[in-house]
Design goal:
This protein is an alpha+beta fold and 112 residues long. Helix content is 29%, strand content 21%. The strands form two sheets. Strands 3-4-5 form a three-stranded antiparallel β-sheet. Strands 1-2 form a two-stranded antiparallel ribbon. A hairpin with a 4-residue loop joins strand 4 and strand 5. It is elongated, with a radius of gyration of 15 Å.
C-alpha cells in the first residue's frame, strides 16, 4: 500500500493503517510485513489473502452463522486492540473478504 505521488490526502490513511496493523495480531486480519518512508512517502507491505467479496445470499446457509461469528470475532479483536481499542471506520461489506478456505477476514484500516 502506498499513497500515489501527489496524493497528499492519501498519506493519512496509509499512516493510520500502519498504526492499526502494528497493534493487531489476529489470524483473520492482515499482518504488517514491512513499513517505511522513502522519497515517495509512506508505504506498507501486508500479508495477502486469497478470496473475494462475501456472498450476498447466505440465507439458510451453514456459512451464514459461521461468517457472522467470525465477523463478530474480528470486530471484537479490533475493538480490544491497542490502548483502548480501535474502531474500523468503514465496516462495510467491501472490507470483509470470504476466503477460499471458507472463513472470512477484514481489510482496509485506513479509516480507523
Amino acid at each position: 500500500m502506498r499513497a500515489l505521488p501527489g496524493a497528499q490526502h492519501a498519506i493519512g490513511p496509509v499512516e493510520r493503517e500502519r498504526r492499526v496493523l502494528e497493534q493487531l495480531s489476529h489470524p483473520g486480519m492482515p499482518k504488517l510485513l514491512l513499513a517505511g518512508d522513502d522519497a515517495a512517502g509512506p508505504y506498507l507491505v501486508e500479508s495477502m489473502f486469497q478470496g473475494g467479496a462475501l456472498p450476498l445470499t447466505l440465507h439458510g446457509s451453514p456459512a451464514r452463522e459461521r461468517f457472522a461469528a467470525e465477523l463478530l470475532s474480528l470486530l471484537d479483536a479490533l475493538h480490544s486492540a491497542g490502548d483502548g481499542g480501535i474502531v474500523h471506520g468503514d465496516p462495510s461489506r467491501a472490507n470483509f473478504i470470504a476466503l477460499a478456505s471458507g472463513h472470512c477476514t477484514m481489510i482496509d484500516f485506513g479509516s480507523s
